[in-house]
Amino acid sequence: MDLVTLLIAWLVTAVSFFIISKLPTGVEIDSFQKAVISAAVFGILNALVKPVITFLSLPAIWLTFGLFSIIVNAIIFGLAAYLVTGFRLRWGIWSALIGAVALGIVNSVIYHLLGNLPGF
């Protein structure tokens, strides 16, 4: 992954976070700058913490045919909210769960709209 692709992914995730905060998901982000910071923290957690949590939860992931991966994503989403001031989850784990699913959907839509960019 080159630097331009990484920056585009970061910007797409930041825009997705900001859009999600405007929907009735229980996710609150104070400003677009906080969304950019949240996207960076979320990306770092995805790179460093998610592999460990996924490895530890492999039996649950196998038993649920992969559906437990949504819970793993919600945990990462909640950790990002805990670490970034100005990023709150109004309904706790439920907001993290709804936000993680919404993030996946909104990211997919944005990437589909960007479809012809190199690297995507």
Describe the structure.
With 120 residues, the chain is mainly α. The chain has one domain. It contains six helices and two strands; from the N terminus they run H-E-H-H-H-H-E-H. Helix 1 (3-22) packs across helix 2 (32-48), helix 2 packs across helix 5 and helix 5 (68-83) crosses helix 6 (93-114). The model has no long low-confidence stretch (mean pLDDT 94).
Defining traits:
single chain; about 120 residues; mainly alpha; 6 helices; globular
Map the helices and strands.
Elements lengths: L2 H20 L4 E3 L2 H17 L1 H7 L1 H6 L4 H16 L3 E3 L3 H22 L6
Antiparallel strand pairs: 1-2
Helix pairs in contact: 1-2, 1-6, 2-5, 5-6
In total, the number of strands is 2
> Strand order, biggest sheet?
1-2
Total helix count?
6
Count up the domains. Answer: 1
Span between N and C termini? 10 Å
Q: Helicity range of the residues?
A: over 70%
Structural class: mainly alpha
Looking at the structure, what is the overall shape? Answer: globular
- List the uncertain runs: none
Mean pLDDT metric = 94
Biggest sheet architecture? 2 strands, antiparallel
Tell me the radius of gyration: 14 Å
Order of helical and strand elements: HEHHHHEH
What is the strand content?
A: 5-15%
